[in-house]
Design brief:
mainly alpha, 0% strand, elongated
Length: 250
Amino acid sequence: MTVGKGGPTARAVDWLVAGLIVCNVVAVVLGTVDPLFDRYRSVFYTFELLSVGVFTAEYVLRVWSATAVEEYDHPVFGRLRFMTRPAVVIDLIAVAPFYLGTVVFASDLRVLRALRLVRFLRLFKLARYSRSVDRFRRVMRRKTGDLVVAIVGTSLLLTLASSLMYFVEHDAQPAAFSSIPAALWWGVVTLTTVGYGDVYPVTPLGKLLGATVAVLGTGLVALPASILASGFIAADADPDQCPHCGRDLD
């Protein structure tokens, strides 16, 4: 993980917030263990209160100081426009469950439990403190077109294979292949080579079709991974930092 570009104090704050985010995720995971949560309820609540205070202060300060950037220099509309940025919206969602659970849904334990899990979104705040996550985002943006083509191709093959399997196997297995949507489950586990074995063809033609789809799926489903791999290789060839001084390259 690489923290921000400021001085030692700014980097220390970045590490503190990043560590607090990770601790929050751990707390959410442990909080789902009912005996542990019941025993240390006050500890969980105190930690959540402290975390929400830090995250709320960070959110308010970021929105308040947004006018320092020319794009958001208007004191009202600039800040409102800044608040619509995806990263800032995630910051708001990260603290909203606490206030909603305390004020709005204080008596609904089921909603409170769901809101606790929403705090997993705080993990996305780590992107601000990790150069690797930012690099992954840039690769995804560059390869969006290729990924869309790969996903569309996989979806077409899945639909076609499931439809053919329905017509081939429906008479032999009316319960397992009762409809094309039901056959989609077989298509997914076959294309992804998972093969749970709960639904499988029994006719000779169905087995031939299943084998063909499994072979095609081995390469087609792996295509998005190869696209991302090529994107990271290209990113390595075009570094975002100077190898000599370590400064960011524009």
